[in-house]
């Protein structure tokens, strides 16, 4: 999930790198300014490099056409577009599966279901799907920090050709993922009913009748079926992170294709044909996750075996291993701040749904649909965060076997310029995606509501002009936000990221608690959340860019 989710993150995270200074990451690796400023900068003007004279004396040239051309080839638009578009397809899996569940469940009632408190069976099932999906998605999303940390470590290790570190990071990450998955499964099976009731909030009151006792068993059934697959699903996320960090987009794309086919046909068979309702949707989603994770894990195992066979690598650890104490401490230092960021996002999105549920069942059901739509478009923005995290290390760690003070200074200057060159291109692509997301989200909200439900009241809530505008604004800002967040993660400016999310989370929760009196106000709070992140991250990017240029 992206921010899901994403943490893009969303897309929301191993251990030790070689002796690489975090300060060097933060100080000497820079981010570019937002698209409205970078569009005025040409490719050539964005680059200056260092060249060595025969006398070994280093001379820095402001512009070198050959070097500009090399950077254009190394970070070509074609390669970036291919990576970003494939990442989008890969990350569409989770929201796509959720959208399919929402659509089929909202249109087909289970067999032998009677109308309860005047609520149509399809609407009742859809209302039960909301808290159940939120429980499953949030539980898994809480572990996404491990995938982000894995991507961060492996991207650096890959750029430095450190196969031993890649083996250790992958195996340890899979071990931690397995433990977390088991914990999630046990939590859902033991306390899932109480958690579903918590996420349901006050939304189980319809026409003055409390139908909580009808909704909770349906929600818990869905959560248990999906929760059973949690260990394999989270390990699949790690395997996917390994693929993306090494710029292997083919394997995740195949996994997503297989999962999508299984989920769609499973829903049509179990929900539409056999009328199994929310339980059938959960089985289809769990089966899709199982197949996808197996495909990713198989390819990940091949990569690990290939790294072990490299010259100089003597590591016989099993494919899935538990990190030792030193590695675990290293994990906590890197993944701890990322976990806080993931938690902050999850708290904000959950608070939105809890607030929406206080306005009645119809508002809660509409919120479920709108949030699914928003998360769907978040995937397109989250891909830019992944691009920054995967490509930036290759710009920041230019390989050079010669060692001298002059050479080191020159290399840092060159890496700074290469980083700015790369990020300029990422931001230009993000601006295009922002425009596409804005217009497409408007179309979905205004004319695509019938795809999710046949209920006229819900369709009217979806088409509200103010809510449509807020959805459009939130989707527009997201690609820029995630491109900047990805660059901050790549440079390991984690202290700033934690502070930024602490402030943003406190602000959004305050808005929801003290300033939100209508369902539309819930989405005003989300837009404020987006605008604050855009402003804070933009200021950080701009200040670091100016500092880099002043060196």
Give a structural overview:
- This protein is mainly α.
- Helices cover 75% and strands 2% of the residues.
- The protein contains 19 helices and 4 strands.
- It has helices at 22-28, 35-38, 65-74, 77-91, 93-107, 121-141, 144-159, 163-200, 212-227, 230-245, 250-273, 277-308, 325-357, 361-396, 405-447, 456-462, 465-490, 494-514, 519-550; strands at residues 49-52, 58-61, 205-206, 209-210.
- The protein has a two-stranded antiparallel sheet with strand order 1-2. A two-stranded antiparallel sheet has the order 3-4.
- Helix 18 packs antiparallel against helix 19 (519-550).
- The relative contact order is 0.16.
- Residues 4-63 and 400-405 have low confidence and may be disordered.
In short:
With 551 residues, this protein is mainly α.
The unreliable regions are 4-63, 400-405
N-to-C SSE series? HHEEHHHHHHEEHHHHHHHHHHH
Chain-averaged pLDDT = 81
C-alpha Rg, in Å?
24 Å
- The percent range for strand residues is under 5%
Q: Name the structural class.
A: mainly alpha
Q: What is the end-to-end distance?
A: 39 Å
- Shape assignment: globular
Show the helix and strand layout:
Layout: H1 22-28, H2 35-38, E1 49-52, E2 58-61, H3 65-74, H4 77-91, H5 93-107, H6 121-141, H7 144-159, H8 163-200, E3 205-206, E4 209-210, H9 212-227, H10 230-245, H11 250-273, H12 277-308, H13 325-357, H14 361-396, H15 405-447, H16 456-462, H17 465-490, H18 494-514, H19 519-550
Antiparallel strand pairs: 1-2, 3-4
Helix pairs in contact: 4-11, 4-14, 5-6, 5-11, 5-12, 5-14, 6-8, 6-9, 6-14, 7-8, 7-10, 7-13, 7-14, 8-9, 8-10, 8-12, 9-12, 10-12, 11-12, 13-14, 13-18, 13-19, 14-15, 14-16, 14-17, 15-17, 17-19, 18-19
């Amino acid at each position: 999930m992206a921010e899901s989710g994403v943490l893009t993150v969303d897309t929301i995270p191993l251990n030790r790198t070689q002796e690489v200074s975090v300060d060097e990451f933060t100080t000497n690796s820079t981010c570019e300014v937002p698209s409205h400023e970078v569009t005025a900068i040409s490719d050539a003007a964005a680059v200056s490099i260092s060249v060595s004279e025969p006398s070994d004396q280093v001379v820095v040239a402001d512009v070198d056409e050959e070097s500009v051309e090399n950077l254009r080839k190394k970070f070509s638009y074609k390669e970036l577009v291919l990576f970003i578009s494939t990442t989008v397809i890969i990350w569409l899996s989770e929201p796509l599966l959720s959208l399919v569940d929402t659509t089929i469940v909202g249109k087909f009632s289970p067999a032998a279901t009677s109308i309860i408190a005047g609520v149509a069976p399809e609407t009742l099932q859809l209302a039960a799907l909301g808290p159940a999906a939120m429980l499953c998605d949030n539980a898994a999303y809480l572990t996404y920090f491990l995938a982000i940390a894995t991507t961060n470590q492996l991207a650096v290790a890959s750029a430095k050709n450190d196969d031993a570190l890649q083996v250790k990071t992958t195996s340890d990450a899979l071990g931690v993922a397995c433990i977390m998955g088991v914990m999630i499964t046990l939590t859902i099976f033991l306390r899932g009913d109480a958690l579903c009731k918590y996420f349901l909030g006050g939304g189980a009151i319809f026409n003055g009748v409390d139908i909580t006792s009808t909704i909770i068993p349906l929600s818990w059934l869905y959560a248990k079926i999906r929760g059973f697959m949690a260990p394999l699903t989270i390990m699949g996320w790690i395997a996917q992170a390994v693929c993306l960090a090494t710029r292997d987009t083919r394997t995740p794309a195949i996994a997503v294709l297989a999962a999508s086919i299984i989920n769609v046909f499973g829903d049509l068979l179990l929900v539409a044909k056999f009328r199994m309702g929310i339980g059938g949707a959960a089985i289809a989603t769990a089966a899709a996750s199982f197949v996808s994770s197996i495909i990713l894990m198989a390819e990940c195992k091949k990569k690990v075996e290939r790294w072990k066979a490299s010259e100089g690598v003597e590591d016989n650890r099993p494919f899935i291993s538990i990190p030792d104490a030193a590695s675990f401490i290293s994990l906590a230092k890197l993944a701890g701040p990322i976990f806080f960021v993931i938690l902050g996002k999850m708290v904000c999105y959950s608070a939105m749904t809890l607030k929406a549920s206080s306005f009645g069942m119809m508002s809660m059901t509409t919120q479920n649909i709108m949030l699914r739509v928003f998360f769907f478009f978040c995937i397109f923005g989250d891909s830019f965060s992944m691009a920054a995290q995967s490509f930036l290390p290759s710009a920041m760690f230019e390989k050079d076997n010669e060692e001298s003070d002059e050479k080191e200074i020159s290399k840092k200057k060159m890496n700074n310029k290469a980083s700015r060159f790369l990020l300029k291109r990422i931001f230009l692509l993000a601006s295009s995606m922002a425009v596409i997301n804005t217009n497409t989200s408007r179309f979905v909200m205004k004319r695509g509501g019938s795809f999710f439900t046949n209920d006229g009241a819900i369709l009217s809530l979806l088409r509200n002009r103010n809510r449509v505008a807020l959805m459009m604004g939130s989707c527009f800002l997201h690609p820029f936000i995630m491109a900047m967040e990805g660059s901050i993660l790549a440079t390991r400016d984690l202290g700033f990221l934690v502070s930024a999310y602490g402030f943003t989370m406190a602000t959004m929760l305050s808005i929801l608690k003290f300033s939100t009196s209508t369902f539309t106000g819930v989405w005003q709070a989300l837009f404020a959340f987006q605008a604050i992140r855009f402003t804070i991250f933009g200021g950080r990017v701009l200040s670091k860019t100016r500092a880099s240029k002043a060196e």
